[in-house]
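Chapter summary example: a protein plus nicotinamide-adenine-dinucleotide.
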Amino acid sequence: MSSPDPTRPLEGRVALVTGAGRGIGRAEALALAAAGARVVVNDLGGAEGGVGSSQGPAQDVAQEIREAGGEAVANTDSVAEWASAQRVVASAVESFGRLDIVVNNAGIVRHQMIEEIDEADFDATIAVNLKGTFAICRHAIPVLRAGGYGRIINTASNQWAAPIGNAHYAASKGGVTSLTYDLAFELQPDGITVNAVAPFALTRMTADAGARDADLQARGLMGATRAAVKEPRADPSLVAPMVVYLASDAAAEISGRVFRVGGPKIGIYGHPSEERTVFRDETDGPWPYDQLAALLPRTLLAGGASRAPHLR
Ligand SMILES: NC(=O)c1ccc[n+]([C@@H]2O[C@H](COP(=O)([O-])OP(=O)(O)OC[C@H]3O[C@@H](n4cnc5c(N)ncnc54)[C@H](O)[C@@H]3O)[C@@H](O)[C@H]2O)c1
């Protein structure tokens, strides 16, 4: 189904974008449609923290795509429950007869430090960001396999590796990253690729980011080095071309990768790996406490025992 028109590399493909009624997902849906894909625009339409719902955002973006000459349908089911995630995937098959590209973008954040987070905050964050991504993958993969083409692009966050509070959100995005690595491995024999973007863009989710960073600095939780890392948040449309590329034939060999994408920048994360090792003769039994206390600071932990100061 490779398209001869380089401006429409996704001609004939069907794409699903979750959380596509606003922000980064909207930009991705518009870009996928402009590249020739028929698009399911999914969005529950709730508030930033995941409360409420509205059909408006998904319907507006689907309409915007159709007015630009593309093909799109709106779907307003939540990704966060198993059965409704199944309906999201089914809407692609019912509307367009197949599914080729899945962009798991729907996400919520509740800006909280650990002692402000209660069980409901934790459950809601994990349900949308991690379970929602998992459930859409789980229902979409048989459809991708049957169609003989598959591109899954998940949405992680730099909070996977460089936290700034929001521990529930960071944990959910760490889960998305591990899910990406695992599915890339499992689906390789089928030629289905699985990657993630850790985006940065100016949306309602980041509108107050400057004030929150200033607050972290005032509390001594964000040092000058971290604060000086300049990633100016720009329009979400600057994230979308990378997603189009990862969805295309040209990206067939790229899988299990996490990209930092936004503004003028595209970066790639290294894979977490074991850096150093110490061994003990198994016949000598378990490590004695005093030996560990003496050995580890000058071997495994040489150069710095705590990760936290380096995050600052
Ligand atoms: N904006 C950034 O700089 C940034 C940084 C890191 C990660 N992200 C991630 O990018 C993604 C998009 O974020 P954004 O900044 O565009 O935020 P946004 O709030 O503008 O958009 C998120 C969309 O997801 C939808 N959504 C929420 N729960 C849903 C559910 N259960 N089912 C279906 N749709 C649902 C919302 O209605 C909303 O339209 C998120 O996963 C977010 O965590 C964004």
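Key point: The chain has a mean pLDDT of 94.
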